[in-house]
Amino acid sequence: MSVSLDLLRTFLAVYRTGSITAAAQTLRLSQPAVTAQVKSLEAALERPLFDRMPRGVTPTAAADELARRVAASLDTLDAVVGARLPVGRAVHLGGPAEFLSEQVVPMLAPLVRDGLRVRLTFGLSDDLLADLAAGRLDLVVSTIRPRHRGIQAEPVYDEEFVLVAAAAAAGRWPDELPLIAYAEDLPIVRRYWRTVFGRRPSADARMVIPDLRGVLNAVLAGMGCSVLPSYLCRAHLASGALVALAEPEVPPINTGYLAVRSGGLSAEPVARVHAHLLAAIRAVPSF
Fold it and tell me: Angle, to 10 degrees, between the axis of helix 5-17 and the axis of helix 20-27?
């Protein structure tokens, strides 16, 4: 029995993304074309490979076995072919606006000066990981552990959080100050309060700014207190413009991950950025 590589590549894309739609976007094919190729492969193998669900597809035992047998070989073949292709394609990288802008952009300087083309997308990790699985992004710096099928991720940094206010508020209890927050539901603030104080904040946000750099500027202007990653406020703490309102023995941290689609490193530009960022981010002592 002869099965074309195109059918196997399409199968692997559906298997890894868990969706005909996402696989079609990854492969730059139409959904009917992907569906037809999957059906052709199922007919050739004389067994079903996916159970169709209301949202996406679920692989059968036969699909699990086929993926186990062909994935490594296809990835190796694509890596060899990819190495022979022009490297002028842009690498699409997603992540939090603040971390990419403040930390990652300077790290990319040597690659960009070398001619690499990069496109950045800012957003929330859940949305960015969905775009990664669908093939719209090549790499994602994620603030949550990726659990999507077909996505590989490595922990690359721990982000430390600090409760800060302008210098004039030194010595005041945090509950006495207005809260400046990133989002209405206070995700960062709530986590800090729960970890350090063992309870929820006693007030809602006085001001909500969906960019931590804006939150920082509001705190510097004396509008209230907030919880910020140390990489954003370290210089202001050192200068005395900001003060830490609490100094827990073990500061709250959040782990960040560098995520890529399974097989995505077969594209040479993506592999270059991935390897470079792994080394550059891990070389920073603390964030």
Answer: 130
Question: pLDDT digit string (tens) for 228-238?
Answer: 999 999 999 99
C-alpha 196: how far from chain center: 26
CA angle 236, 241, 247 (to 5 degrees): 70
Q: Report d(CA 33, CA 40) in Å as an integer.
A: 10
- Cβ within 8 Å of residue 275, ≥6 positions away: none
Residue 68 has a CB neighbour count (10 Å cut-off) of: 9
Distance CA 171, CA 166 (A): 11
CA pair distance 269, 114, nearest whole angstrom: 12
Structure tokens at 121: 């997308």
Place of tokens 């992540």: 95
Q: How many angstroms separate the CA atoms of 201 and 249, rounded?
A: 20
- pLDDT, one tens digit per residue, over 150-188 is 899 999 999 999 999 999 999 899 999 999 999 999 999
The Cα–Cα gap between 111 and 114 comes to 5
Domains, the chain, in order of start with CATH, read 5-84 (1.10.10.10), 91-158+254-282 (3.40.190.10), 159-249 (3.40.190.10)
Q: Strand 205-208 and strand 179-181: pairing?
A: parallel
* pTM for this entry: 0.76
Rounded distance between C-alpha atoms, residue 17 and residue 148, angstroms: 8
Q: Where are the alpha helices (DSSP H) in the chain?
A: 5-17, 20-27, 31-45, 61-84, 97-99, 105-107, 109-113, 125-133, 187-192, 212-220, 230-239, 268-282
Tokens 């990819």 sit on residue: 82
CB neighbours of 122 closer than 8 A, spacing ≥ 6? 94, 95, 96, 97, 100
